[in-house]
Amino acid sequence: MSSPSILVVDDEADLRELLEITLVRMGLDVDSADSLASARSRLANGAYSMVLTDMRLPDGLGIDLVKEVNAQHKNLPIAVITAFGSADNAVAALKAGAFDYLSKPVALDQLRQMVQSALQLNKAAAETETREGRSPANASRLIGDSFVMQDVRTQIVRLARSMAPVAITGESGSGKEVAARDIHANSTRAGKPFIAVNCGAIPEALMEAEFFGYRKGAFTGASEDRDGFFQAANGGTLMLDEVADLPLAMQVKLLRAIQERRVRKVGATLEEPVDVRLISATHQNLAECVEKGKFRQDLYYRLNVIELRLPALRERLEDIGLLADGILQRLAAPGTRAVLAPAALDALRNHGFPGNVRELENILERALAFANDGVIEVADLALKPAMASVLETIQSPVLSVAAVSAVVATPPPVSAAASLNPESDEPLPASLPDHLDQVEREIIRRALAKTRFNRTQAAELLGISFRQLRYRMQRLSIHEPE
């Protein structure tokens, strides 16, 4: 079996020779080119496992070669070599589809790591083509058959082929960490650590030590050497969750670690190399944070090389059935079953879900505790008609017909509607949940009085099931008069 072949494109003879010697010592075959024209000729007449190109060539730019390789040579990783301090060029190359980049002067240990990762990626792509040309994606943790979720999973497979930093955006509870784990699981780093860090949960005074580690005696209580998050994730993926919460002082240090791919422990004098792919996530708008001066623009551009947006649950209501089945299967006791009644599933599809998938999990976990024989009815869901949820549903850019019908068919009570009028003199309630409970309690009492406390007829008047009415009466402490 022949050795993998690497194409090195660089007009500097000394650097080209250094790269050739290093790669040959790794047991690889190496071809060289000193210009774009020569590289194009080599690619047209040979088969390569990887391309390594300088950014500046006598007859053009390496980024042009990156674009051509991505367009014409599927599954061929291409990496770029950038001048020292040319962070913008590196980001541009990654956005154009480069697998990774190296900065001059080239660190040979980083070169070897990058080439090994690229060859593993190339091998995985070749194995995929032999399996009926299907996608190599591992089983995704992101559930849903909606178009938006299919698109997200397709993007994840593509992102897993690159070492470029990824910024995942989406509302709280939409599954940003799940998406990050899927990217890691489908990448060549799948066998290495995945470390997720909540940036908002670390005290500012401890951030540097937590991220970069510390030496024994660096401060009071440092009784032994300790690695930080970067060292723990070495070779794998580091996820920075809620990255917008990082203080500005830490943002400066993080930017240096990303650019230099080296970190220095607290109390140490020397930096140590780290090989980490960064995935950041936030529910905030980072661009707005940059405009307000809360987030560094240079760090924003380094983290936001590729953006992956996760849709809110209200944008994919057709996935609720699949999501609910998966959640209930996980929550149900061994040997038991848990299912949603059709009416309960309809009720969930009409809910606004400001808390997204996380809220759905909480609702189902609570409902399962009240369900009879594992069958969850509408009353077991205990969905509150929170005004914020209704408003968010109305404002959603993607609505199902059922969701629109539910909102239109159930107008808010007069007193609640008046409280939304800015011209109204009626004071705002001190507690919105208590106010809504009081409104609901009054409507139920009126329906019961009208039917002489016949709960079956009252439920029909209110358009709910008898069981749902009974549950609401218990929750609101409504009792039959003696």
Oligomer: single chain
Strand order of the largest sheet: 2-1-3-6-7
CATH superfamily of the largest domain: P-loop containing nucleotide triphosphate hydrolases
Give the count of structural domains.
4
Strand content: 5-15%
Tell me the radius of gyration: 29 Å
Residue stretches low in confidence (pLDDT < 50, at least 5 long) are 129-137, 386-420
Mean pLDDT: 84
Distance between the termini: 91 Å
Report the principal-axis shape: elongated
Number of helices: 22
Supply the helix-strand structural class.
alpha/beta
Total E-strand runs: 16
- CATH topology of the largest domain, by name, is Rossmann fold
Q: Biggest β-sheet: count, sense, barrel?
A: 5 strands, parallel
Give the C-level CATH assignment of the largest domain: Alpha Beta
Please estimate the helix content.
Answer: 40-55%
Per CATH, the architecture of the largest domain is 3-Layer(aba) Sandwich
